[in-house]
Q: What sequence folds into this?
């Protein structure tokens, strides 16, 4: 009887040991400054995981491009020198072309549709695909729907875009979208305040939180609510690092990151109406109703570009286009 009790006690101690994650520090990279959308997700994740692990897992957030631009952060995550990142989806398409499906122009009609797709089987397929290039896809937080600003003129139709030098992410797809619209897309790492101020570029395209946090109203005269691309953040871990974690830690990290993503999406969306009002208050001329049908028509042939010729990409794009009808 005594022996049986000893065995039971030993098993209990063993189970408790496996239930508590090993002590570790997660280095998490974001390119933006505190208060930005990426940082909100990162900070919420830090709060949740440190609380749920009883402090055994600590998160160090490397913000403000201290680790380099987003492509460079992704390369460090691949190598395992950085464990996690909250990264805009655009730069991923040079690593895995399947991500281009998310950035297809005018794909989602609203936030609810974006959530349905990205939290469902299509989003899961994209996150799983990232494993082929060294990332463990965990969740989709968001940048939001992207809008246009510039210093040259009000933009209501695609004709107003022609010739504008627009900063874009280092993404072949985003370059292709603006070429189709007649602009001069210029890939450039973030931030770009000085380049806008000095007139090196005419404009930029980003979600409304960027206009607010980075004070685009100080260096841009015109804004257009084009909502031309829904821009997600993909919350990823280094696959090599991930595989070394015990199952308990993996589960805890996955759940915390997803909850942080859902939290951040709501915070982001709840502020958009106030952000638009702020732009007007700060003197920007806002075009609230550009001719979106004309914009859609100008980019309709994007799906026929070589960017989407990969059979896997084409198949997922068609599946997604059918899902959002």
A:
């Amino acid at each position: 009887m005594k022996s049986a009790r000893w065995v039971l006690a030993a098993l209990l101690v063993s189970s408790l040991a496996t239930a508590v994650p090993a002590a570790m520090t997660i280095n998490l990279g974001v390119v933006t400054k505190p208060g930005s959308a990426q940082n909100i997700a990162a900070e919420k994740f830090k709060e949740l995981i440190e609380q749920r692990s009883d402090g055994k897992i600590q998160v160090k957030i490397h913000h403000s491009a201290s680790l380099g631009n987003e492509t460079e952060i992704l390369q460090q995550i691949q190598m395992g020198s950085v464990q996690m990142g909250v990264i805009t989806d655009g730069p991923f398409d040079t690593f895995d072309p399947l991500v281009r499906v998310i950035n297809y122009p005018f794909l989602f009609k609203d936030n609810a549709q974006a959530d349905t797709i990205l939290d469902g089987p299509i989003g899961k397929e994209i996150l799983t695909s990232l494993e082929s290039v060294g990332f463990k896809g965990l969740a989709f937080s968001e940048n939001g729907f992207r809008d246009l600003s510039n210093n040259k003129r009000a933009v209501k139709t695609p004709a107003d875009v022609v010739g504008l030098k627009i900063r874009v992410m280092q993404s072949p797809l985003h370059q292709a979208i603006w070429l189709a619209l007649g602009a001069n897309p210029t890939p450039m790492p973030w931030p770009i305040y000085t380049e806008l101020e000095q007139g090196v570029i005419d404009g930029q395209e980003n979600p409304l939180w960027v206009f607010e946090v980075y004070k685009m109203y100080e260096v841009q005269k015109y804004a257009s609510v084009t909502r031309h691309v829904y821009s997600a953040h993909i919350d990823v871990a280094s696959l090599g690092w991930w595989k070394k974690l015990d199952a308990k830690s993996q589960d805890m990290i996955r759940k915390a990151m997803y909850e942080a993503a859902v939290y951040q999406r709501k915070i982001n969306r709840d502020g958009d109406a106030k952000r638009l009002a702020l732009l007007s208050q700060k003197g920007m001329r806002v075009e609230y109703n550009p001719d979106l049908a004309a914009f859609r028509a100008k980019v309709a042939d994007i799906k026929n570009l070589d960017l989407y010729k990969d059979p896997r990409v084409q198949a997922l794009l068609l599946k997604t286009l059918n899902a959002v009808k």
Notes: The CA atoms of residues 209 and 271 lie 8 Å apart. The first helix runs from residue 2 to 19. Residues 1-19 have pLDDT under 50 and may be disordered. The longest strand covers residues 135-145.
